[in-house]
Amino acid sequence: MTDDDPVAKDGDDLTARDVYAIWQIRDAVFAVEQQCDEPDVDGIDLLPTTTHLWCADANGLTSYLRTYVTEDGTRRIGRVATRKDARGRGLSSRLLRCVHDRWGAEEIRIGAQAYLEEWYGSFGYERSGDGYVEAGIPHVPMIRLGS
């Protein structure tokens, strides 16, 4: 597998090795680097309505995101993370495009870290409300209307 081959797996199809790799990249980015002050494990990862997408190399996951459908039927994207040594190579963009290829006809929502508002905007997301703080980090709600 190379960085050019994104993987997509539904929550109920993940292996223990997949879960470990996912939590490893999220722990490194969110807990260690960003010092998030809320738990990462939230009961969403293993649901059949959750899809995990990632790129990997010989050292593990290089970039990751998850998308899921909420109880009210809204598709959301979250937990977007790229390993420190893999940044600047367009990996998160590649994963986001995979989401849009699969679910682009649907409305998609994201709680984006505020500093990434312009980046998400380049993919058609628009701010949809007031900013807020989540896990100690400023966020903005954003929406991409289905095509």
Automatic annotation (TrEMBL):
Gene3D superfamilies: 3.40.630.30. The keyword RNA-binding does not apply. PROSITE patterns: GNAT. SUPFAM superfamilies: Acyl-CoA N-acyltransferases (Nat). It comes from the Bacteria. Keywords: Transferase. Residues 9-147 form the N-acetyltransferase domain. One of its GO terms (molecular function) is acyltransferase activity, transferring groups other than amino-acyl groups. The keyword Transferase applies. Coiled coil: none annotated. This is GNAT family N-acetyltransferase. It comes from Aeromicrobium piscarium.
